[in-house]
Amino acid sequence: MTALTLIDHIRELRRRLLWSIVSVGFGVLVVYAIYDQLVGFFMAPFMTHGNSLVIHSLLEGFVTRFKFSVMGGMIVSLPIHLFHVVRFVFPGLTRRERRVIAFALLGSVLLAVVSGWFGYRVFIPFVISSLLTPEFVPSGVLLMLNYEQSVFYVLNFLLWGILTFQLPVLLEVLLYLNVVSRRALLAHTRLVVVIILIIAAVVTPPDVISQLMVALPFMGLYFVTILIAKLAGFGDGRV
Fold this sequence. Notes:
By secondary structure, this protein is an all-alpha fold. The protein has two domains: 1-165, no CATH class; 166-239. It contains ten helices and two strands. The protein has helices at residues 6-33, 35-47, 60-76, 78-89, 95-131, 147-164, 167-176, 182-187, 189-203, 208-232; strands at 53-54, 145-146. Strands 1-2 form a two-stranded parallel ribbon. It is flat, with a radius of gyration of 22 Å. The two termini are 30 Å apart.
């Protein structure tokens, strides 16, 4: 294989950046075209309780569709960006490094699917039901949920959930590179558990059950990550 010059690398990078930009634009158009079907998916958790969503301004419907389409276009084009990043980086990696990245990408996709399903099917309905109980919404109070806020509440929660569930993959890569060691992670287990509980308390309603629903999966993933590194034979702190 002929070695590429710096100019060749820059040209290749420019070409892949152009493909990424085009994919974002195409993704925005696709999401805009099927907006009605997609927004119904994000409104569904609120509709199951017989609620009606309202808008508070003339432009809210347009602004919501525009923002949703831009965010959606960026999200649906992520596989294209990832493909071009991998194709650009892979030639300079060893066979073992390529294998590690491939497994990391597979784990990332699986965790994204699991976190998205858990968030949409289990956690978001539970949070909405909890927040709409008489404990927080007294009888006689008319509930009028805002359309834009409700749609982006679900979308943002799913995005943050998916991103947070990528942390075990990042941690596994750091263990492989010996940036951190299994011994150090186990030594700081108490601190990690406290941090996870604090995060769960911040992002969930003020009840123990919902906090544990967020905290326990993360604790489990933390220890599973260390176990995988042990079984694979890396993360012992030796280069």
